[in-house]
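Translate sequence into structure tokens.
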Amino acid sequence: MKILEITHSFVRNPQDYISHFLLTFFEGLETQNIKIKVISPHNSGLKRIENYGSIEVERFRYAYDKDEILAYKGNMHEIVLSNPFNLILLFNFIKYCIRNVKKDISDFDLIHLHWWLPFGIPVSFIANRYNKPLIISLHGTDVRLIKKYKILRYPMRWLSERVKAFFVVSNYIKNIMEEIGISNDKIYVLSMPVENELFFPEKHFNKNKVILTIARFTKQKRIEDIIEIANNIKNDKIIFHIIGDGPEKENIKNLINRYQLQNILIISPMDRKQIAKKIRSSDIFILLSQDEGFGMVVVESMLSGVPVILSNSGGFKNIINNNINGILVEHGDINQAILSIEKLIKNRNIRNKIVNNALKDANKYKRDNIAKRFIEIVKFISSGENIN
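Result follows.
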């Protein structure tokens, strides 16, 4: 089978943290004798055509280097809405993507689009014209936008009649899709995979216990809650490391300065190997996002033998069984989060139980397991059956 993969975000190098889960997923498909080609946007300094192993990547240009500002920032819709001229840029973004799809589509058996915005509707027209099956994977942000901008429900319903299936990363996303009127038999839950060769437990000793957060600095990630925890915790042997970047960075720094906190370190994004090493050397991972679609870094922490504390929200509830393989705290409950940190630090038996259970549960997210499940579902869809 040959699959044409279309995405508005893809790794810029093999160790890039941006959308790395897609490269991991495609590598898994390769092990199942699937031929992959990726169409993604160009960005300044990138090659137009390159290969990651046997995976061919072709990046479409949509403006001069300095004007290619839509992709790889994680907030495309905000960029588009910030300036009327960016609507023209978006038009070119879509136009040149579709041009590449038209050029290649005849050579492939299946079209697989990641994120339904902004390419979903135009790609569906091309797939229909060439009589190619189209499936769309929804990763969270593109579905949350439907909740924010209710007018998007109408094109999504229209699109649902023209695709073979939607793959969603959690039951939380599936429930949103059903709420807006998408048929259950079109929706399949399948998370993205992790690189099991990078994420594994490793013994370490920290003089001060390190509480790690890795997230894009947006309002949705609620980094301010982590800062509130650091400000209120009564243990000077606990320090917080927060890895990330994004539009809320200055607000986060200002809050840290206002509290005059010495127990928080903000760290710039790093490559995959460095991220894996940083997770392994931490004592607890904490992320208190609101309505997270899934959370790959959570699974990476679980595979690394690091216990996780998460908000009882969104897709986190699909990953974590509270107090069994991790801890869920109520959204915005700073005291509960502090008590959970102290429990994991002080009670070795509870910590060990959670870590051991998490290691077992996280195995299902490994690359080969996700790839096999994907192919299994695709075959059933192609046969006209429903395995939900």
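Note: Residues 241 and 314 are 24 Å apart (CA to CA).
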